[in-house]
Amino acid sequence: MSRGYKGINKVVLAYSGGLDTSVIAKWLQQTYDCEVVTFTADIGQGKEVEPARSKAKAMGIKEIFIEDLCEEFVRDYVNPMFRANALYEGEYLLGTSIARPLIAKRLVEIASETGADAIAHGATGKGNDQVRFELGAYALSPSIQVIAPWREWNLNSRDRLLDYCDKHGISVENRLGSKSPYSTDANLLHISYEGDVLENPADEPEEPMWLWTVSPETAPDIATYLELDYEKGDIVGIDGHRMSPASVLRHLNKVAGANGIGRADIVENRYVGMKSRGCYETPGGTVMLKAHRAIESVTLDRELAHLKDDLMPRYASLVYNGYWWSPERLAIQSLVDNSQQYVNGKVRLKLYKGNVIVIGRESNDSLFDEDVATFEDDAGAYDQADATGFIKLNALRLRIAAQKGRK
Fold first, then answer.
1. Is 264 in contact with 92 (CB distance < 8 Å)?
2. Where in the chain is the domain with CATH 3.40.50.620?
3. Where would I find the Arginosuccinate synthase C-terminal domain in this sequence (predicted)?
4. Is residue 4 very low, low, confident or very high in pLDDT (cuts 50, 70, 90)?
5. Which of 87-91, 123-127, 292-296, 343-347 has the lowest mean pLDDT?
6. Which residues is 67 bridged to in the sheet?
7. Strand ranges (DSSP E) for 58-148?
8. CATH 3.40.50.620 describes domain 10-69+98-168
9. Which sequence positions are flagged as catalytic?
10. 338 is in an annotated binding site
């Protein structure tokens, strides 16, 4: 039983109410002879979270936290990430990664509120989430103890988990085969799929797997038009209607998903060292990234925009690897947020059969000057002869190298 933990009398468990975390709740009670507090976060996963209360009560748990964190999730985590245009390895919009720091924060806060000695999670020893939960927890509460049952017990298969449930009277839904063959994770930003046929990266995902998006082939033949209002880099309204952060993302998920937008099939490099194939649906996020880059294209200074692009892969890796609360992510975020003070205006989009097409952008803070950019008579706004000296100065090092015979 001894795992190196000391004085464990109460543990706060990140609890979904599903098979794994229900087993963990009972296992913690038995293994550590401790009181268990459950925390269930509603971050827009699309299923009712309230049943977790009755399941926890059935196991004798007295302190049960069920919280709607959707607005905080989008306002304080999703939106700051999209201000940075974050994209991991060129494709992944970080839907799972960005949810973990919020859950870690609430776990340690609830531990403090309830006088708990430790927190626990249901992430496996092979994945990224164990790192994300624990790095977040230690950054916010350095002395907290973290219990990760998947790294300790021998219940390493669904059959063993079900046998444990039978032995200890834990109710389990969908045990007769109606459970999805995929391992999924959902929140307001995305839904992910792993396992089953996806474990072979050569196999095409089955169409019935996708839950949030229609296929581009069956999407409507008529395009959907949207106008997004931006203030300081965040979408604050759609089609003239001001909306809360979570409401914006819900609406974009709905209209983008209906137009076949947001599917991704990725083989990514996990932080723990292995490659993993996953499929993702991020309809609203796909629109957000495209539109944000569009409004930045007219409002950001060139060098500032390029600096952000230089920093973006580092920022994305920090989010993916669990360093949301690190000093380097916070420093980059400060720069990113400062860059957004003039990222205001409107972006008009056309959504059509899997495509997000920018058809217009405008801003009172635009740096686009038609008098300078025009191919017609610029009335002296730009002296084209100035380009001669500009080119010669920039070519100087290239000419010297060529004269020296260097290639």
1. yes
2. 10-69+98-168
3. 182-400
4. low
5. 123-127
6. 41
7. 64-68, 118-120, 145-147
8. yes
9. 20, 100, 129, 183
10. no
Q: Are 259 and 353 contacting, i.e. CB atoms less than 8 angstroms apart?
A: yes
Q: Cα-atom radius of gyration of the chain, to the nearest Å?
A: 25
89 appears as a binding residue in the annotation: no
How many of the other CB atoms lie within 10 Å of CB of 186? Answer: 20
Q: For residue range 215-263, what is the model confidence (pLDDT) as tens digits?
A: 999 999 999 999 999 999 999 999 999 999 999 999 999 999 999 999 9
Tell whether pTM > 0.90. yes
Question: How far is the C-alpha of 203 from the C-alpha of 184, rounded, in Å?
Answer: 18
Q: Indicate the residue type of 1.
A: M
**Three-class secondary structure of residue 210 per DSSP:** coil
Best CA proximity match to 87, nearest among 277, 355, 320:
320
State the residue for tokens 């069920």.
66
366 is in an annotated binding site: no
| Angle at 185 (CA atoms; ends 181, 191), nearest 5 degrees | 95
Strand 10-14 relative to strand 118-120, pairing:
parallel
pLDDT at position 1:
43
Q: Residues 6 or more apart from 321 whose CB is under 8 A from it? A: 128, 131, 132, 135, 271
> Using an 8 Å Cβ cutoff, are 11 and 34 in contact?
yes
Q: Is the pLDDT of residue 180 over 70?
A: no
Establish whether 352 is an annotated binding residue: no
Classify burial at 296, counting beta carbons within 10 Å of its beta carbon; exposed 0-12, middle 13-18, buried 19 or more: buried
Pinpoint the residues of the chain covered by CATH 3.90.1260.10. Answer: 183-300+343-362
Q: Is 124 one of the annotated binding-site residues? A: yes
129 annotated as a binding-site residue = yes
The CATH class for the domain spanning 183-300+343-362 reads alpha beta
pLDDT at 379: 66
Coil vs helix vs strand at 203: coil
